[in-house]
Amino acid sequence: MKSLFVVLFFIITNTSYGDICSPDPAPRFSKYSKPQENKPITSIFIDSSQTRGMTFKTSSENGPYGSYITRNLDYPRYEKVFEQLKKDYPQLKNRGEAHITVLTPVEYYCNFKPAGTTIKQLEEMIGPFINENGFKVNFSIKSIGSHQVDEKETFFIIVDSLDLIKLRKKWATLPNNGFKPELFYPHITIGFTDQDLHSSQGVIKDELHAKDYRYQLNINP
Q1: Which residues, including other chains, have CB under 8 Å from residue 60's CB and lie 6 or more apart?
Q2: Does residue 29 lie within any of the structural domains?
């Protein structure tokens, strides 16, 4: 009986891990991804001050969701956006930090790990890239985005970054199984009503699928 349990556990575990590498479902459109006729637009303000303490964070934990790379951001700038959105969504919660995911756990687990590339090898390319890139890794803020799955809802700032795509192209020179550096939807998660939503649920966080036309994002001078 014990050996049967072990076999079943192995099958279930490996099936669940394999599922995360399955193709994502067709993209959903946010229900607010079209202009809302005769609806008021709420202004959301964000500080234009430069982001300080630009750092990359690497996680190399076990499991399919344990390894990833983010660019960490100064949280207070984005906390102000969170507090403004909470006026419309009092139940909104967040993780108390801000970041842009540059390499997702799924990308590492499904594309790099099977080819023998370690997260440390990817991390070691960041420093030289920053030097080559003039000691900057810029991004531009585009708009407020939102997405919904059933009763769950998530909010984020949609951003654009040629620099981060260039870094991902550097990573693509390492052995990998089908990594696509330009298949990238950079964003900064602001909050969610229940849990964050991801591409495995058909959630694409770009302006085409997810720009929230109820809000106008304004950058304070």
Answers
A1: 66, 67, 118, 119, 120
A2: no
Contacts of 106 (CB under 8 A, 6+ apart): 20, 21, 64, 65, 200
The tens place of each residue's pLDDT in the chain, 221 residues long, gives 433 333 323 233 333 445 889 999 999 999 999 998 888 999 999 987 655 456 899 999 988 999 999 999 989 999 999 999 999 999 999 999 999 999 999 999 999 999 999 999 999 999 999 999 999 899 999 999 999 999 999 999 999 999 999 999 999 999 999 999 999 999 999 999 999 999 999 999 999 999 999 999 999 87
Residues 27, 18: Cα–Cα separation, whole Å: 21
- Residue 116, sorted as left (phi over 0), alpha (psi -120 to 50) or beta, turns out to be left
Q: Is residue 106 part of a domain?
A: yes
Domain for residue 110, yes or no? yes
How many Å apart are CA 100 and CA 69, to the nearest integer? 9
